[in-house]
Design goal:
The protein contains eleven helices and twelve strands. It is α+β, with helices and mostly antiparallel strands. The chain has two domains: 34-193, PurM-like, N-terminal domain (60s Ribosomal Protein L30, Chain: A, 2-Layer Sandwich), CATH 3.30.1330; 197-217 and 252-373, PurM-like C-terminal domain (Phosphoribosyl-aminoimidazole Synthetase, Chain A, domain 2, Alpha-Beta Complex), CATH 3.90.650.10. Helix 3 packs parallel to helix 4. The protein starts with 33 loop residues before the first helix and ends with a strand.
């Protein structure tokens, strides 16, 4: 189910005239170690199995994973009347460079899952399964397994199956120590329950969910600040408390899947959530605008939540304009819901009970499809 080593071809054999003079070439000499890839496959078996429910079947190590979507058995209770599959793909971005520099490999996998499933649930979908792609200079079995362990952990948090993936050892593409991580998520939603931005109405209330820091956007700017100001990832700074800068920046992206899916499932008839947004690159103005009709605006009170200290630190160190900060980073808001006004307080209470940190941060007014930050 998980072919973790990409093998294109073996180097051609020497001609008959030169066989005696030249040693035979191997794939390992070319930089790709098949044995290391096989070792990783064995290490990750239990990680994948922890994410599998009864709808996953097929043999570990096959060419593709299998997931049964819908069938009439009481065991699953997941029969759909009019199912719509929802799919997305995303990566971790240059945050992986910080992970490689610090030598922490078991958190960016969570980021990878989060960046996908947080997009997927915006449509009201339940995450079903996830696959990842890991490209790297060299397969070091234990280190590579740590990366995939993070992906498996993210899938457990999101409530989806890690169905498979690919690990490509490419020494000619990635420099020593470098790697990249991307993922692909598939979910399902009943057609009538899909979240449609055209349902957003005037006087709807905007609710924000707190982020766990920078998440996985804006790290090219973060890295530029670190380089320009000579900051050290292994140092602590008084403005940031007892954690090192590296530990704070590598805090995984928060996964909102289970709380959102649970919230939506409580309302079988009423559709109290009219829109949602995952706050990624582009910040609040660049993402909330994506779920607004052309005749309505979102007015957001930026004093409605406490901005985590890491953002103030980065802004001060980089001498960054506030508007630029709001355009690049989530500034402490990782996810946004737009809900009917009579249900706003109830939604806040329910999300609080699920361990989230929600806050009312604005409302929908008549306008022209813009986001206003006050």
């Amino acid at each position: 189910m998980r072919p973790f080593l990409a093998i294109a071809y073996t180097a051609p054999m020497a001609s008959a005239a030169t066989k005696q003079a030249e040693a035979q070439m191997t794939y390992a000499q070319a930089g790709v170690d098949i044995s290391a890839g096989d070792a990783v496959v064995q290490l990750i078996k239990p990680m994948l199995r922890r994410t599998h429910g009864p709808r996953v079947f097929g043999q570990h190590g096959g060419f593709a994973g299998m997931f049964r979507l819908d069938f009439n058995e009481k065991l699953f209770k997941k029969n759909y009347r009019d199912p719509v599959l929802v799919a997305c793909a995303d990566g971790v971005g240059t945050k992986v460079k910080l992970a490689a520099e610090v030598g922490v490999y078991n958190t960016v996998g969570i980021d990878c899952v989060a960046m996908n499933v947080n997009d997927l649930i915006v449509q009201g979908a339940e995450p079903l399964f996830f696959l990842d792609y890991l490209g790297l200079h060299k397969v070091i079995p234990q280190q590579t397994a740590e990366m995939i362990a993070g992906v498996a952990k993210g899938c457990e948090i999101a409530g989806c199956a890690l169905l498979g993936g690919e690990c490509s050892e490419m020494p000619d593409v990635y420099a020593e120590g470098e790697f990249d991580l991307a993922g692909f998520a598939v979910g399902v939603v009943e057609l009538r329950r899909a979240v449609d931005p055209t349902r957003v109405e005037r006087d709807d209330i905007i609710i924000g969910l707190a982020s766990d820091g920078v998440h996985s956007n804006g790290f090219s700017l973060v890295r530029a600040i670190i380089k320009e100001r000579g900051l050290r990832l292994d140092n602590t700074y008084s403005e940031l408390g007892n954690q090192t800068l590296g530990e704070i920046l590598l805090t995984p992206t928060r996964i909102y899947a289970k709380p959102i899916v649970k919230l939506l499932s409580k309302y079988k008839v009423k559709r109290i959530v009219s829109g949602m947004a995952h706050i990624t690159g582009g910040g609040l103005p660049g993402n909330v605008v994506r779920v607004l009709p052309d005749d309505l605006d979102a007015v957001i009170d930026t004093n409605a939540w406490v901005v985590p200290s890491i953002f103030d630190f980065l802004q001060a160190q980089g001498k960054i304009d506030r508007a630029e900060m709001l355009r690049v980073f989530n500034m402490g808001v990782g996810f946004v819901l737009i809900v009917r006004p009579t249900f706003a307080d109830s939604v806040v209470r329910q999300l609080n009970r699920q361990g989230e940190h929600p806050f009312i941060m604005g409302e929908i007014v008549k306008g022209s499809g813009q986001v206003t930050l006050q």
